[in-house]
Write a structure and sequence with these properties.
Length: 178
């Protein structure tokens, strides 16, 4: 089944409303109440500094379903925060989470940002593994971040290294030309 990642662009037409409703249903199933954006999702995605990508797959007979989504928010001109990432339980471990995260990072890089950050409960081992795999590092453990008994890692990925590498490559090329 081919997976297609799309961006929620227009936010008030009937197709977009349907997409948001489907994501709200997933959000309710996947996250506990205190961590869920189900109630505020529409409001969140209406903000100018927020982006949402969703992944659809065909389920036969020409029908499709959304099986994952990622939400991100520009918190400054240099920094983006990944605010949500989720894949429907029976579609996990097929590369969808990684594809969504990479697509969001690609999207963020269309603007000149230097850092992507996020918060994740250390108990969410699959998510922490995914972020580690992509190159995120743990900044600090924030106690009681989600609730009185649930902490969060603040994680980040800096792009400055890429800039240094590009500069280094350019310098090597220049040296070769000279
Ligand atoms: C985290 C989540 C989005 C991963 O989605 P997924 O589609 O299953 O992930 P992928 O198949 O793309 O896996 C990519 C990498 O993630 C890590 N990973 C995913 N599931 C894992 C698991 N069960 N155990 C350990 N590592 C796991 C691995 O590093 C994996 O790379 P690999 O396949 O080379 O080992 C999914 O588990 C999920 O929705 N969890 C609940 C919601 C959540 O915790 N969201 C993040 C916090 S906001």
């Amino acid at each position: 089944m081919a997976a297609v990642i799309s961006e929620l662009v227009a936010r008030s037409d009937s197709e977009s409303v349907q997409v948001v409703q489907e994501i709200v249903r997933l959000e309710r199933k996947i996250f506990p109440k205190h961590e869920s954006l189900a109630r505020s999702l529409l409001e969140e995605v209406s903000k100018k500094n927020t982006g949402l990508l969703f992944l659809k797959i065909g389920k036969g007979k020409g029908e499709e379903e959304i099986v994952g989504y990622v939400m991100y928010s520009w918190i400054s001109s240099l920094c983006v925060s990944i605010t949500k990432l989720a894949v429907k339980e029976n579609h996990r471990r097929q590369g969808h989470g990684e594809a969504l995260l990479k697509a969001a990072m690609q999207k963020c890089r269309t603007r000149k940002i230097q850092r992507i950050c996020l918060h994740v409960d250390p108990m969410r081992t699959p998510a922490v593994s995914l972020y580690n795999k992509i190159g995120f590092q743990i900044d600090e453990l924030i106690e009681c971040y989600y609730s009185s008994d649930r902490n969060a890692y603040r994680m980040y990925l800096d792009f400055v290294i890429d800039v240094i590498l590009i500069c280094a490559c350019n310098a090597i090329n220049l040296n070769c030309i000279n």
